[in-house]
């Protein structure tokens, strides 16, 4: 089982119930670009209920008589939800779509519209996702707390952990991914093998992010000498470093945000842009708090932009050189936008809508908001 996530927020947990279902959880993909209107591919906007993206792709593959790899998609969407997303297929198959529509509807899939386009849809070709979540059994006093906490987190942002969906029902997909890269497990299905390896990369990222947030909380909670004593404990081996001094700790403590920046952190302009190395953590923290930049964490692999200096000392504990898949950087901290909420007192329900950048999990935002994990 992957380790529990750590959140730096101080608000007390809010009691309510969320059930990920097609009625209470809706995800709408926001495309990166509009269809061109011509080309050899077909962009299809679909609605699905109770199916994972992989299950939907497999169904399209079977009834169209094509390989799954011939179908493009921008991102994976939740199974226990009503989700709207784009897929692409070769345009030569357009005439078959009317014939297969009844079969799709039997499996709770509906084609909403389609347009010609000049390229196959690829992973990451989306801006983000809009979410709707219905929270239940929320008492009035907790609804008031929820709305004030929403305002705080809208301003502060939240840690960009990978959610439980990334790790499978038992939470141990990453162990299979690790076994694959160690050559102790063989998976014939390349797409599944790659997914399991990415789960291991995600596990390492989450572990790094948890460590950085714990480090930040230690910095905010103790005097410089007490911080040094805490960092020397065996529980924080990834934080052991000869470079920390009372003077440096005091400088780091000038930062007020939940994620304390270190020299050598790989930053990225937000919500998109180029990576760069943090040279002046105090100056950069001001831009971070203004939502102009955000720190990134490593998805371990080849061609990775590595952290430097102090940040490297910690990050190196969460990299695995045996991973031969390409590595990349992922925002460690993100912000929800377009937040709207409505409390329905007679039903003790709260209807919550918001937008997140691509790759961010609505369930992680909700955990941050409610102060509880494994909703």
Automatic annotation (TrEMBL):
This is tRNA pseudouridine synthase D. Its EC number is 5.4.99.27. Belongs to the pseudouridine synthase TruD family. Responsible for synthesis of pseudouridine from uracil-13 in transfer RNAs. The gene is truD. NCBIfam families: PRK00984.1-3, tRNA_TruD_broad. GO terms for cellular component: cytosol. The active site is at residue 78. Pfam families: TruD. GO terms for molecular function: RNA binding; tRNA pseudouridine(13) synthase activity. InterPro entries: PsdUridine_synth_cat_dom_sf, PsdUridine_synth_TruD, PsdUridine_synth_TruD_CS, PsdUridine_synth_TruD_insert, TruD_catalytic, TruD_pseudoU_synthase. It is an enzyme of class 5 (isomerase). Residues 157-321 form the TRUD domain. Keywords: Isomerase, tRNA processing. It comes from the Bacteria. It catalyses: uridine(13) in tRNA = pseudouridine(13) in tRNA. GO terms for biological process: tRNA pseudouridine synthesis. PROSITE patterns: TRUD, UPF0024. It comes from Helicobacter magdeburgensis. The keyword Isomerase applies.
